[in-house]
Amino acid sequence: MNQVFELLRKFTIFNIIDIAIVSFVFYRVILLIRGTRAVQLLKGVFILLLAAGASSLFHLQALNWLLNRVLEIGLLAIPVVFQPELRRALEQLGRSNWINISMRWQGTKGIAHTVHELVAATQVFAKNRIGALIVLERSTGLNEYIETGIAIQGILSTELLINTFIPNTPLHDGAVVVRADRIVAASCYLPLSDRSDIAKELGTRHRAAVGVTEQSDALVIVVSEETGKVSIAENGELQRDLDEGTLSERLTKGLNEPQTNSLRWFGRKAGLD
Question: Which domains does the chain have, with CATH numbers?
Fold first, then answer.
């Protein structure tokens, strides 16, 4: 008890701050890996640690030596195995408020025009059940995805969007990337999310929408070819079955707000509505 009281006597406000920061980091790491294959990998590492501890306790020298060597090799493999999660964390850290200078997407009138054209095209897609995937670039550059598609560099308009996604045309497969008031490229390939909590009925378009928003601050519109329902993806979260008014509000808000993510650098939305 004397040792306990001695430790409590030396406990300061800085110790509390230290514990709070470490707890916060662990909490954000758990949110980051939840719903990914990293959870199963961590379970495997935990089982190996328990086995190593048990082998040491019961003096199983050969088994303990083998498990320790496996754990040593595993530490070197962690950066490779967890590369997607580490990359996502560093990208979100780079987009935090205390590093970036807040910027707006474009002028208010320009945003109103862009939202009008996007919503009008989306309603045509939904009515005719034409699949569409439209990525709106914000502060994070999307050149690595733009380069996988076909350059357009055309002024954004409802007619151009509709013509691009008409089935069985050369540009309809893949995503369109919009930068400010221009369609930069079409038929672009996007990274697919590997999350296990995405609804099974959702296809490749929706996984691609979630995937690109996990790796950037892009805003993505998805129209289902099977149901005609409209969804929007942002920060790894997918909101489904939007009507015209809700879609317009979400786009206006998303394009007007400062393009930073505050201190959500290890954050991940829990649900996919």
Answer: 2-94 (no CATH), 108-256 (3.40.1700.10)
